Amino acid sequence: MFKKILVANRGEIAVRIVRACSEMGIKSVAIYTDADRHALHVKKADEAYNLGADPVMGYLNAHNIVNLAVASGCDALHPGYGFLSENPQLAEICARRGIKFIGPEAAVIRQMGDKIAARHAMIKAGIPVIPGSEGNLNSVAEAVLLAKKIGYPVMLKATNGGGGRGIRRCNSEEELLKNYDRVVSEATKAFGKPEVFLEKAVVNPRHIEVQVLGDNFGNVIHLFERDCSIQRRNQKLIEIAPSPQLTELQRQYIGKLAVQAGRAVKYVNAGTIEFLLDSDNQFYFMEMNTGLQVEHTVTETITGVDIVQEQIRIASGLPLQYQQTDVHYRGFAMEFRINAEDPQNDFLPSFGRVTRYYAPGGPGVRTDAAMYTGYVIPPYYDSMCAKLTVWNLSWEGVIARGRRALNDMVVYGVKTTIPYYQQILQNTEFREGRFDTSFVETHPELTQYHTPRPKELLAVAIASAIAAHEGL
Questions:
Q1: What integer pLDDT is reported at residue 30 of this predicted model?
Q2: d(CA 72, CA 57)
C-alpha cells in the first residue's frame, strides 16, 4: 500500500481524498495557489505546497505537480476530477517519474477522451451508439450533407470535449451553418484541438450513467446507475441513485452494458459509462469518464462502497474487494450541487466571503464542502462550493429528507442554488419521477421564489420558538 499520496486538485474533492487517505493510514500532500492559501484542503492535508500566484495554471502544470510529488516523497498521485484528471499526459509523466497514477492507463484515457475512438470501441463491443459521423468532420459542407441524411435536430460536439463544453444543438441547416465555426473555436480554446463530429440529437432524453470499477486482474463490476437528467446547459445540478425512472429489467440491462464496455477497453480503476435513454426506452452510449465523478457520493451512499478507497486499492495492485454478486443497493440517494450562483439572475456566479455557514446533519445526510465561515470563495474556479447528499429507503422519503436538509443548510454572504433546489423538490413532475434533460429549461418559473431578508428570517425564528414554547 502507498505511504504518501499527492492530491492534484483543490476544493471539496481534495478534502474527500485527504479523508480517504487518513482512514487508510496514508499521508496526504495538498497543493494550492495563492488564491487557495486558506482553503480547507490545505488545512486538512498532512503537508501542503504552494504552486505560485497563477490561480488556474498552477493546477494545470503537470510537470510541476509531478516534480512536487517526487520531491515530497510521494509514491502515488490522485487527480480527483476536473483539471488534469482525464489528461493522459499527467498519467504518462507519473509513469516516467515512478509515481503511481491513481486512475486508468494513459492509453485508455486517450482512447476514451477521443469521442470518435470511444465510439468505434463501443460499436466493436456491441454497445448501441447514437447515429452520426463515422469520424471527424472535414468541413461544414460535410456536416450539412450528413445532417440531411440522418435528419434534424443534430448535435455538433468537440471530439476531445467534456464537462458539457463544445456542444451545440442545431435544429436546422441555418443553425448548423451558424454554429459550426463556433464549436470548432470552442473546441480549440477549451481542449486545444479543433476536431468536431456530428450526432443525431436525442430529443429530451434521460441522462443515465453507470459507475464501474475494474482491477488489474480483468475483473470489472458495476455499482448501479445514477440519473443525471436534472441539468442546465449540459451541467449537472442534481444526481440520483438509483434512477427512479428505470424498471429493474432496465437496471440490469444497462449495468451489463456498462460492464461489457469496461471489459472491451480493459478498463482499470473507477470510471463512468454515460448513456442517453430516449422516449422509446432505447439506451445509447454517450461517453466514458475515465476517473472519479462529482456525483460518486450517491453511489457510495446506496451501495456502501467507498469508491475513493477502492481507487487507491486498485492502483496499489490489489484486486477488487467485491464480485458483482456482492454489490447491492438500498434505498435512494440524491446529491445537490451547492453552487455559489444566483438562479434568479441567470445563475450568475456569486463569489465572495461566506459570513456564516451551517452544514445540515441528522440521519441520512452527508455534506462534502470546501467552505467554512469566513472562507472567501475565489472567482477563478468552478462555482460549486459544497455537495449535499441525502438518503432514504423510499423515493418519497428521500425527497422529504432533501427538503429538510436544504432548509437546515445555511450559507450567508453569497447567493447559492439552495432555494432553487427547494423549488424543484416541490414540483409535481419531479416528485412523480417524470423528468428529462429539458426539465430546467421548461420550468423557468422555479426561479421565481422569494428569498427572506435577514429581518424576516429573524421573525420566522422567533415565531418558531414561540410556537415550540406554547406546545410544551
A1: 98
A2: 21
- Cα(348)–Cα(343) distance, rounded to whole angstroms? 7
Considering Cα of 367, then 372, then 373, then 375, what sign does the dihedral take?
Answer: negative
**What is the DSSP pairing of strand 154-158 with strand 196-200?**
antiparallel
Residue 373's pLDDT is: 97
Cα within 13 Å of Cα(178), Cβ side: 8
Report the distance separating Cα 361 and Cα 352, nearest Å. Answer: 25
What one-letter code names the amino acid at 410?
Answer: V
Q: Which three cell numbers stand for residue 81?
A: 476530477
Q: What is the mean pLDDT of each run of 10 residues along the chain (472 residues)?
A: 98 98 98 97 98 96 98 98 96 98 98 93 96 92 95 93 82 96 91 92 96 98 98 95 98 98 98 96 96 98 98 98 97 98 96 97 97 96 97 98 98 97 98 97 94 62 63 54
Write the DSSP symbol of residue 451: -
Q: Are strands 410-412 and 365-369 parallel, antiparallel or unpaired?
A: unpaired
Vertex 371 angle, CA 370 and 375, to 5°: 135
Report the candidate in 8, 10, 12 with the shortest Cα–Cα distance to residue 386.
12
| Same domain, residue pair 237 and 346 | yes
Residue 134: the pLDDT is 87
Residue 86, all three cell numbers = 482525464
> What is d(CA 359, CA 50) in angstroms, rounded to the nearest whole number?
29
What does the alpha-carbon distance between residue 391 and residue 301 come to, in Å, rounded to a whole number? 7
Last residue of a domain, one of 161, 181, 200: 200
Predicted TM-score (pTM) of the model is 0.90
Report the number of distinct structural domains present in the chain: 3
CATH number for the domain including 193?
3.30.1490.20
